[in-house]
């Protein structure tokens, strides 16, 4: 039996059809009765022995009897304590069973769900029940997750209760002249524990760093059965997911596959809603990219139940239709079948161009060059937005200027590339399949990222679900390197915050595998130690369990709680740091209250990396404007300004390489709100 994979029909039936907690409470009462009898027997035995020794029985035989009787009385008292402990732990398990029974889905609800599924499936002749079947299956998955979560809690509590029991054979083994079989019960109720394979975890059967919950593999997960880092919820695979059953990065909800999805049952990137397949869809049950509405198939449709791309309205089949229930291309009106028709209920082909100033065929907008453009000032085919160059672009103006999208299938504004989606809220992307804004790269669902598949914001790198990271797979914020679930780390695999180097589950450590805080060295579980394997506090050396009565550990430190060498301030680790809660080397706050840097030669607060100036930066040599706010929020390398990602940019809100303006993406652009290259 494995409750992690058992169907909810089985789990719920077992919980509700068993004997219940009554027999466990009865057993606890019986253990209490046995304990009382044992204590009474011990008291009576001690009383009889004492009376004999105080009376006529004297001599060597009396002394020998007393030598044997005293441990026997102690044994009876010890066994009574064991019985009382068994009663207490039995009650703990019984209470846990009552809790799991209350948390488990009732079998009748599971049966009703399966019956509804069968009924819908049998009557789904034309596929009309597909949405209802999907909803029923989602409810069933939620029941499954609820049962698994309840059983994980029950297993954790019962195993912990069993671990606290002392086996009876340990008491019996001390009796003179007696041998006790090793087959006597050892006190476990089932389950197992893996000791020593993780650092800073709270819960059962976690492998990794800083997990809170049960059966997690990874870093900084809060919940059960997560594989990855920084997940909040249960049964997630990936990083930075909030919810359950999400494989991917930065999803908020359940049953999402991909990154940056908000809702449930989405497959893709940056979808907001439920059961969307694609990227940047806003609504539900869409198939494609950049649809705003429900039940659309295609890209960049605004409305419901459209099949095609760039349709504005509902029930359209084709491309670039404005209105409802049109079939064809570039129709303006309702219930038309054909090309370039204006009005309602028409069939056929409009003029070569129904707009003005067009060159080509089937343009229903104005000043277009190409075929079947229903917007204005487009060059290409089937563009329903304005100022586009390319194919099937459906972006609309946002009031900041013309669209200027160049590429294929862009449903956002001011994009360069392929299939950048998200409607008018997704602007100024350079690359492919970006559903956020101001991104340079591929598949970014957050904003102002440089790289691939980032679901957070202001990242430089790959698969970051947090914000302002430089590196890979970071689910925390302001990290430099890879796989950090905490924040402001320089290094990898840190579940804590403000650490320099790797595998730290505590905070502000310089070194490796620190589960405590403010340590310099490795494998320290205490605080403010300089050395290795110290479990006490303020030690300088190796393996000390003692708390030292000193202000700092290490050498030439000034302040309180520092470790390392030449620290000035409080609770710093590393070398020559000034301020508070810094790790690494030679970092300092540039005004009062600026703290928590990691790395080398950072000035400000909450920086990770090397030679950064300002606040909340990650990477290398990022600097705020000399006259500007100290808040940088920049990732990457050698950027000057604020809220940037990428390389060598000067401005605000830029991604990419060498930007000289604001809110631009791409390479070497000198204009604001632009995407692409060399503008």
Model description:
With 679 residues, the protein is α/β, with parallel strands linked by helices. The chain folds into four domains: 8-172, Up-down Bundle (Ferritin), CATH 1.20.1260.20; 307-394, no CATH class; 411-477 and 616-679, no CATH class; 487-605, no CATH class. The relative contact order is 0.05. Mean pLDDT is 83; it is low at 170-197 and 397-403.
Keywords:
alpha/beta; flat; 4 domains; 18-stranded parallel sheet; 679 residues; Ferritin
List the helices and strands and how they pair.
Elements: H1 8-17, H2 22-54, H3 60-103, H4 107-122, H5 130-163, H6 168-172, E1 207-209, E2 212-214, E3 217-219, E4 222-224, E5 227-229, E6 232-234, E7 237-239, E8 242-244, E9 247-249, E10 252-254, E11 257-259, E12 262-264, E13 267-269, E14 272-274, E15 277-279, E16 282-284, E17 287-289, E18 292-294, E19 297-299, E20 307-309, E21 317-319, E22 327-329, E23 332-334, E24 337-339, E25 342-344, E26 347-349, E27 359-361, E28 369-371, E29 379-381, E30 389-391, E31 406-408, E32 416-418, E33 430-432, E34 440-442, E35 450-452, E36 460-462, E37 470-472, E38 480-482, E39 490-492, E40 500-502, E41 510-512, E42 520-522, E43 530-532, E44 540-542, E45 558-560, E46 568-570, E47 578-580, E48 598-600, E49 603-605, E50 608-610, E51 613-615, E52 618-620, E53 635-637, E54 640-642, E55 650-652
Parallel strand pairs: 1-3, 2-4, 3-5, 4-6, 5-7, 6-8, 7-9, 8-10, 9-11, 10-12, 11-13, 12-14, 13-15, 14-16, 15-17, 16-18, 17-19, 19-20, 20-21, 21-22, 22-24, 23-25, 24-26, 27-28, 28-29, 29-30, 30-31, 31-32, 32-33, 33-34, 34-35, 35-36, 36-37, 37-38, 38-39, 39-40, 40-41, 41-42, 42-43, 43-44, ...
Helix pairs in contact: 2-3, 3-5, 4-5
